[in-house]
Amino acid sequence: MTTVATGLQGLMMDQPLLLSALLEHAARWHGNAPLVSRLPDASLGRGDWSHCARRAARLAGALQAVGVQPGERVATLAWNSTRHLELYFAIPGMGAVLHTVNPRLFPEQLRHILQHAGDRVVFLDPQLLGLAARLAPSLAGVRRWVVLCDAAELALAAAGLAAVEHPAEAAGQGDGVAALQGLQDYESFLAGHPETFAWPRLDEQAAASLCYTSGTTGLPKGVLYSQRSIVLHAMAISQPDAFCLSARDTVLPVVPMFHVNAWGLPHAAAMHGAALVLPGARLDADSLFALMDGEGVTVAAGVPTVWLAVLEAMRRVGRAPRALQRLVIGGAACPPMLADALGAEFGIQVLHAWGMTETSPVATVARARHATPADVAARVHESQGRPLFGVDLEVVDGDGRALAHDGASQGELLVRGAWVASAYFGETAQPGALRESWFATGDVAQLDAEGLVRITDRSKDVIKSGGEWISSIELENAALLHADVQEAAAIGLAHPRWGERPVLLVVARPGSAPDRADILACMATRMARWWLPDDVIFVSSLPHTATGKLSKLTLREQYRDYRFPEPGKS
Ligand code: ADP
After folding, report:
1. Closest listed residue to residue 102, CA positions, set 419, 545, 420
2. Is 468 in the same domain as 455?
3. Which of 400, 432, 459 delimits the end of a domain?
4. Which single residue of 70, 142, 150, 287 could bond 282 by disulfide (Cβ 3.0 to 4.6 Å)?
5. CA dist., res. 513 & res. 516, Å (int)
6. Residue 493 forms beta bridges with which residues?
7. What is the count of structural domains for the chain?
8. 274-284: b (≥16 Cβ within 10 Å) or e
9. Are residues 479 and 443 part of one domain?
10. Average pLDDT over residues 174-200
11. Is the pLDDT of residue 222 over 80?
């Protein structure tokens, strides 16, 4: 779209959309709204928006005092906590760039990301001190490591270096904290700085935060969000037909703050003065249930794997957490069985959202229109929903031609909008994924006349059998309809006759021993016979990515030499 010269300018104040304004608004008008944080020792820390704003001001002062410059990237390696929340607002508020880093990535990826971003200051959780100590020798650019705790806790952590957060940490403790330049605890870092800060009037297009894609294909790429894109995204996800957020909500982002700005929930909570509950590193179902129940959480958000486990916990307890009304489920397809069970057994509304790191991340949300006919409501339920205002979608064939919005034609999903990436950080070459004014998502989808988008698969996960496509998501959703299936993953494996055929990996519900033929019979009620997996393999667990999604890449590697038990069926 080209911009047309203005005939007449509007006469409205030019107020940039800034993260500091979100924090000031929350502190000024919703100062008492609670902020609760699960601390490393499992106790709960309590504060409110006013407290958070005062500490963020001290932090901004401290960052300025150590010479952090506008536009400079400042990294965090941390779980969800109120200290992390202070960093969320103080770093972009003073004009620097919050660079959230996923501590579950492999050390080589972490090194690459921290070097590529050029981070000089890293804030980290005390549990991650051991990991930092091993990374530090190859990160000469990092001049300052600030640990999110007080002096006594840092002394304890340094003495023990007892972190076991990362698989690689089992391999040894490296050089210890001596490798960490400028090591300091967070409370000492803040000490002496005033509780007010003159937040600068920044350009709303200035970079505010940086998040690298998880790099399931190739090296991770940096997505650089602007002040404006974050504020607009927070506004959009709060709408009634999206997550319907308000000052009456207590919001629990299970989605980590190192993953795409925790889906924008910290920013949206500040916008509305909602209460926030931040779960730290304890993300098992029983801990989450207890936290939601104890703190009166009304809305929580995370990937399907988390909610499948929480559903089991609710069934064991015989009820839902007392105030829970809605669950935002996204990051991977929400199995209809999960949404149905949460609704029918516990009266919880599921808001199924689709997006990616490059889309900030929320682009579509599934919420039925009021009084929709039952058949349409069911379609909404099984879809990823409609685009939010501010983003636009298209589905194209292999030659880039737009496909009909008939709910049947499927092709690659394109997206564009005010919070969609236009380029990757520090990449000089034109990113392959950017096609004209659209971002090509790599997802295969259908659009229908109601505006509903249905993600059939990721293009790299779709199973290509005899020239036809089988959706791995459909296979998994169908398998989950069997009462004894706890988790399922479908992958395409090389087949001598059909190119690829589907294989289903199943984790059985504890105490059950489902039968292969039974699972296939259950799935056969939902799909054509040639879609059915050629084999069902029972496993004790399935691999997940650093963000908690099923890792089909790992599975395909694990089963690379797999031989089918019999010639594939057509
Ligand atoms: P990664 O999964 O590699 O960590 P992202 O978090 O950016 O990176 O993931 C984005 C991808 O996740 C999308 O392209 C899509 O394939 C998948 N995804 C996200 N939400 C959904 C959803 N609701 N349904 C199906 N797939 C989804």
Report:
1. 545
2. no
3. 459
4. 287
5. 10
6. 501
7. 3
8. bbbbbbbbebe
9. no
10. 92
11. yes
Rounded Cα distance between 480 and 523, Å, is: 9
pLDDT at 235 over 90: yes
Write the CATH number for 512: 3.30.300.30
- Ligand 1 centroid to residue 199 C-alpha, Å: 35
Nearest-CA residue for ligand 1 atom 1 is 214
Does residue 135 share a domain with residue 103? Answer: yes
Least confident segment among 214-223, 270-279, 531-540: 214-223
CB of residue 455 inside a 6 A radius of ligand 1: yes
Residue 291 located in a structural domain: no
427 and 448 co-located in one domain:
yes
Residue in the structure block whose two tokens are 């925790």? 262
Is there a domain that residue 236 lies in?
no
Average pLDDT, stretch 557-566? 89
Distance 433 CA to ligand 1 centre (A): 15
Domain that holds residue 473: 463-558
Output the CA 529–ligand 1 centroid distance in Å.
28
At position 313, the amino acid (one-letter code) is: A
| Dihedral over Cα of 471, 477, 480, 486: its sign | positive
Tell me the per-residue pLDDT of 383-411, one tens digit each, with 9 for 90 and over. Answer: 999 999 999 999 999 899 999 999 999 99
When pLDDT is cut at 50, 70 and 90, the band that residue 2 belongs to is confident
Q: Determine the distance separating the centroid of ligand 1 and the alpha carbon of 458, expressed in angstroms.
A: 8
Q: Are residues 481 and 529 in the same domain?
A: yes
Residue 340, H or E segment: helix 336-346
Distance CA 80, CA 279 (A): 6
Q: How far is CA 167 from CA 107, 159, 174, in A?
A: 10, 21, 14
User: Is 374 within the bounds of a domain?
Assistant: no
* Closest atom of ligand 1 relative to the 260 alpha carbon: 6
Could you give the 3-state DSSP secondary structure of residue 187? helix
Handedness of CA 16, 17, 22, 28 (dihedral sign): positive
Same domain, 536 and 399: no
Candidate of 106, 216, 329, 443 to mutate for ligand 1, largest count of ligand atoms within 8 Å of Cβ:
443
Alpha helices, DSSP H only, in 458-551? 472-479, 516-524
Q: What is the mean pLDDT of residues 540-565?
A: 91
In a domain? residue 288: no
The per-residue b/e assignment along 369-406, b for 16 or more CB within 10 angstroms, e otherwise, is eeeeeeeeeebbbbbbbbbbebbebbbbeeeeeebebe
Query: For the domain that residue 446 is a member of, what is the CATH number?
Result: 2.30.38.10
Across 413-432, average pLDDT = 86
- Pocket flag, ligand 1, residue 533 (CB < 6 Å): no
Q: Which amino acid is at 2?
A: T
Could you tell me if 426 and 486 lie in one domain? no
List, in sequence order, the alpha helices (H) in 200-335.
Answer: 227-238, 265-272, 285-295, 304-317
The reported pLDDT for the residue numbered 372 is 58
Residue whose CA is closest, atom 5 of ligand 1? 356
